[in-house]
Amino acid sequence: MAEELRQKPGRRGLRVLAAAAVGLVGSAFIWLVTPYNNYVIFNSYISDSYLPTAALLVTLVLVLAVNPLLRWLRPGLAFDRSQTAIALAIIRDYSPTRR
Q: What is the pLDDT of residues 5-33, one digit of tens each?
């Protein structure tokens, strides 16, 4: 919370846009990989279920690998809780699932 108060007002908006961009990139990755997985290599469906495996994989990579690595190397670039929530909500909402 203190880090958010120290940021300049314009910088907060840029960080939210960065979180949205990460979410859209994650969703685009899922949209590109799903047809290849389903129709070319005839593997099990990774996103056509009520609990999409692809969205969980992207979420785990973002939360357990990318963000801690950024926090270790460049703490200013790591996402906080609200930005992580924005990215994960976009990944979850725009990934192809059975609805």
A: 555 556 677 888 888 888 888 888 888 88
The domains of the chain are located at: 10-94
Overall pTM surpassing 0.85 (yes/no): no
Q: Could you write out the DSSP letters of every residue in the chain?
A: -HHHHHS-HHHHHHHHHHHHHHHHHHHHHHHHHHHIIIIIS----SSSSSS-HHHHHHHHHIIIIIHHHHHHH-GGGS--HHHHHHHHHHHHHHS----
